[in-house]
Structure formats: C-alpha cells, structure tokens
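Fold tokens
===========
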Amino acid sequence: MAMFLIRRIGHGILVLWLISVAVFGLFFVAPSNVAQTLAGRQATPETIALIKHRLGLDLPVWKQYFHFLGNALKGNLGYDYYHQVAVTKIIAQALPITVSLALGAAVLWLLLGVFNGVISATHPRSLADRGLTLFALFFYSFPSFLLGLLLLYFLYFRLTLAGFNWFPAGGYSPIAGGIGPWVQHLVLPWIALALLLAATYTRLTRGSMLDVLGEDYIRTARSKGIRESRVVVVHGLRSALTPVITQFGIDLGQLIGGVVVTETVFSLPGLGQTAVVAINQQDLPVIIGIVLFASAAVVVANILVDIGYAVLDPRVRLH
C-alpha cells in the first residue's frame, strides 16, 4: 500500500506539472492584452508598459513560468490581476460553495442511481425495469442548463406566483447562517445535478448487478437458504459496486473542481463560475490556480478509488 501511494502521488505531481505548463502556454498563445484592459482604452503606451512591468508580463515566458512555479511550491499561487487578491483566498472563498453543491448532489444521485439499478437488476425485463431504463435514458440525454432552467421556472417562478416562497431564485447562503437557508438555496441545484448523474449510475449498477447475480458464489449462497435480500445486498451489491465507485470518484473529483453550467444557471459563485470570469478577463493566476486545484481533486479522487477497490473486493490487488 505504501509503495502504491508513493507511485500514485508521484504520477499525480507529474500530471499537475504538465497541466500547469499547458495552461501557462495556452494563455500566451491566445490573443489577449491584460495590460491594455487594465489601463483602459485611452491609456498611453507608457502606462501600459508600466502595468506590464508591475505584473511581470514584460519578462520572457519561461521566466514568468519559473517565477510562478517557485512561488507555487511555497503555497503562493499569485494575485488576481484586477483586484490584487491572493488566488488562494479566491479559491478558499469559492470552494465551500462548490463542495456543498457537489457533496449534496452526490448523496442524492448515488442513492437514487444505486437503488434504481438494483431494482432493475433484480426485476429484469419487468415494468419497473423498463420504466427505470426510460428514466435513465431521458435524463441522460437532457441538457443540464435546460433542466436547471425548468426547475427554476416550475419550482421557483410558478410557485412564487402562487404564493409559495419555498425556493430562492439563486445565490448561496453559508451553512453558518443556518441549515435551513443553506439547504433551501442548494436544493434545486442538487436536484438538477442528481437527476442528470443518477441516470448513469442506474445503468451502471444494473449492468454490474446482472453480471454479479449470475456468478457461481451467488447461486451457492442461494442454495444455502440465505435470504434473497441478504444475497442481493451483502453478496451481490458489494462486488457490483466496484465500477460504480470508479465512476463516483471521477465524477466527484470533477465536480469539486467546478460545476460551470449549474453554478451559472443558479447564480452560485463557486469555483466553476469564478473560473469562467477569470477566463473572460484573461486573469492568468486565477485560471492556473483553479485548474491546478481541479486537477488535484481528480488525482486524489482516483487514488481513493483504487484504495476503495481493495476494500470492496479483496480479490483486487494494488500494483
């Protein structure tokens, strides 16, 4: 286990370094003029040159990169070009919003997807199986922004007109301000994400469960007179969850890195929306900081997935 973790951490560091090089390079390939934007249209060439010098944009690209890399190794990701706020502070402010959105939605889609998948697998070709399959295909093909807008229209706009102020239009209420307002602001984005991703988990769990329920050890367990519910949940579901855990780790890592569409539709100032603003403004330190954080989340999620393999299925060995 120790050697496995060392290898995976080493690979993760290499991936993060390559991503930082790629993002840094793309910033200078794309047409942009940060200094001109900051100075304004009427700025003189001398003013623009002064801003470039203060930001270090007049240095060769490789010098700028190694300056950034040296600071990053010390935990300093630089400062926002426009407001001179530390990138780490910007990430720290947006992260609780994205984590709240991702974790709440993850609980819903995992419970919904696994439950539906088990029901479909234990009742193949039945009316319930066909109905759940239709549910999965419908939401799997549904555009995320459209689902979010429909939820806002029916559960916010129409209910508000009817005098039921159950859901706010958007924004975020910190959990420190109370569980009720926190849940109230996030329940619609949770539902939007959960319905989209639960479809994938329904199909994934169904296929995996059907394979597992046909194994010899399942037939042996049934022949011993073990209750069917115990056979399905204890013996079948545990082995069938291996591909589900893989997908869950990847999805959760990506969501913590930022949910751009959902955060935009529901006006949540999380990492995804912050990244979009930074890209539009060509704010390099913020862009790189969020991309590196998102990449680190995916790397950590994949390591945890591999460890989860060994816990769920003793036949799996870490190499």
Notes: Residues 109 and 194 are 4 Å apart (CA to CA). The chain has 13 helices and no strands. The chain has a mean pLDDT of 83.
